[in-house]
Structures are given as C-alpha cells and as structure tokens.
Amino acid sequence: MAGLAFVTCLMVFGVIYSFGAFFNPMANEFNASRATTSTVFAITAAIYNLLGVVGGHLCDRFGPRPVVLAGALTMGAGLLATSYIDRLWLIYLTYGVGIGLGVALSYVPMLAVVGGWFVRWRNTAMGVAVSGIGCGTLLFAPAAAWLIERWGWRDAYATLAVISAFSLALCGLLAEAPPVASRSVPIHFWQSARTPNFGRLYFSSVLISVAIYTPFVYLPDFAQSLGISDVRAASLVGLIGAASVAGRLVLGTIADRTGIIPLYKFSTIGLALSYGLWILSHSYGLLVVFASMMGVAYGGLVALSPAVMAELFGVEGLGTMLGALFTSSAISSLVGPPLVGFLMDRTGKIIWPPLLASISGMIAFVILIPLGTPSGQRKARDARQSAMEGMH
C-alpha cells in the first residue's frame, strides 16, 4: 500500500508542482498579470485542500478503490480540457477545479489507507508514501519545462493528462481498504476537532502553507529574472522535490525512535528560516542551497503531518481527520499566491515571495510551541493502538 500511495503522490503533485514551468508561457499567451495567472494554482490548491475532507470521508466509508478511480478520471479530463482552452478564466475551471478535485479524491484517501495498514512502522511507511511528492516534483518540473520548449504548454498538458490518468487508475484498482473499523468516525471526529491541539495544528497549517506553496509558483520566475535559463530555473523546483525526499525518509524514520511532535516543530522553523537564503540570493548557487534546505524541511512536514494526526487522535477515521486539517491550506493557497503576485505587480519588487513566506513560517512555529499529547489523550490513543495491533 505504501508503494501505491508513493505512485499516487508522485503523479498528482508532480503535475501540480510543475506549474511554475507553465507560469510564464501561460501568462504570455493570455497577456495576464502575475496575480491572475497565479490564481490558477491558487484555486487548484484551495479545492484539493478544501475537498480533501470529502475524499477522506468517502474513503473511510466506501474504501479507496472507487474514490481513487474517480480522481484519476477527473484529473485526466481536467488536464486534457486545459490543453484546449483559449481563455484564462476557463482554465480556472478546467485546471483549478478538475485537478483540484482529482487530487482531493486521490491523495488523502491513499494516505489514510497507509495509516490504517501500518501500526509499528507507520511513520516510516508514511515517509515512503509521501516521498512520492518529492520524486514527482524532481521529475515533472524539469520534464515539463523540456516538453514546453519542444511542443508548447498545451501539448505538454495533454501528455500529462494521459500519464496521470493511467497511473492513478492503476493505483485505484490495486488499492485495498485497511482492516480498521470506522463505526465511530463522526463522534470521534467532532471530539478531536474541538481540542486545542487540533486548533493549533489547523491555524499553524494556514500559515505554513503560504511558505510551502510560494516557491512552486514564484521560484522559477525569480530565477529567470536573474538571467537563468527556463529549464535550470524549473530545475530548482525539482531540487526542492529531491531534497524533500530526504526529509521525508530520514525524518520519518527518526520519528519512529525519537518522537514525532518535536521533529514536526523543528521542520516548521527550518522551513521558515530557509527563506533567508532566498532573500539574500543573487546567484543560482545560493538558490540551490535554499531549495535544498527548504526541501528537507518541507519534506519533513509533509511526512510527519499524517503521523502527528495519528499520534494525537488515532487512526480511526484518519482520512476524515486529515481532510479536515488540509482545509486549512485552502485558505492560504487561495489568498497567498494571488496576494504575492499583486504586491509584485504593484511594486515591481521580486522580494515579496520569500519575505511573506518567511514571516508566515515564523508565526506558524510560534503557534505550534504548546503542541503536545495530553496524558488522558495519550492513554486513549494507546488503547486504540493496542486494539488495532490485536486486529493485525
């Protein structure tokens, strides 16, 4: 199951995080500003984060197979339709809604499946699964730039439509629901959602998502402004993906031995501090260092987030809980990229992306400082885990 989740993450986020390579070609063809072009990505991220709770709940209710198959169909159709659109506002629908819904029906359900199948090595399994996000970013960002140079952005999206739909459909057909009952999901969800810990995670996620999404939209554009070629600029996003794989695998494995929540906080502050390198960057080399540091911290956050939820609230109804947490990112993804683009368009200054990302990350870390597992909640979690180990 971890392997299937790996491929799912590779495909959906490989497509989404290659958007930076499409940013300038689309803006130039439609004669659009940075703010209006970045809204395509903003809508996509908002929808998959907002509807992840729906995908997670459907997975808890019906199993992953029909949900992921629906995601494969939606994503393929959205990408193919985008390759034919002649107005930017229509891409808000075909790409934003189509790809956003496709991710919502694929990503959260497959993570929930991994969380349910693994007990003793859950953190490591989650790290393997979400490392697909980094690998997808590493492969798809430069590949998309290469395809665009040779065939144009429309044919590049048509190609991605076929590849992603086929791969996700295969993962959906092979996925199996874990042997975890979900009878008490509604009660457990509302009890957990009202706790201070969930509130801290939620509002921290709103802010840290600004720092996560910023380079996938604006880093290639920033690099190109320094005279760096399109493919090398897009490769910086790929480097973030490569570094994030290390963060996911290494920190996920360490968490099995040291503790999840301290590492989650460490990844948050590391992500915020990495943007100081971008702010100071005047060369490709320093941008490479930034991408590496940011990628490791970002990878750790993504790998540890589902494990933190399982640690605090258990795996029963994990799909619904993860989906609820990911709605927080819908807020920041919908507001963050367009706001950054607006400030850049109005002031002409390219420093806004790393500056706002760094500030948001710092505040997110402060919110997380009190995060911990209360003794009563820990006992309840341990009791649930003991019951699940008996089932396995």
Order of helices and strands: HHHHHHHHHHHHHHHHH
User: What's the name of the CATH homologous superfamily?
Assistant: MFS general substrate transporter like domains
Termini Cα gap: 15 Å
* Largest β-sheet summary: none
Regarding CATH, which class?
Answer: Mainly Alpha
Q: Per CATH, what is the topology?
A: Growth Hormone, Chain: A
Tally the helices.
17
E-strand count = 0
- The chain-level mean pLDDT equals 80
Beta-strand content: under 5%
Given helix and strand content, the structural type is mainly alpha
In the CATH classification, which architecture applies?
Answer: Up-down Bundle
Shape: globular
Instruction: Please give the share of residues in helix.
Output: over 70%
Which spans of ≥5 residues are poorly predicted at pLDDT below 50? Answer: 181-187, 375-381, 383-392
Q: What's the Cα radius of gyration?
A: 20 Å
Number of domains: 1
Describe the model.
By secondary structure, the protein is mainly alpha-helical. It has one domain (2-391): MFS general substrate transporter like domains (Growth Hormone, Chain: A). It is 86% helix and 0% strand. Helix 3 (34-50) runs parallel beside helix 6 and helix 7 (107-117) packs antiparallel against helix 15 (318-347). The longest helix has 30 residues, at 122-151.
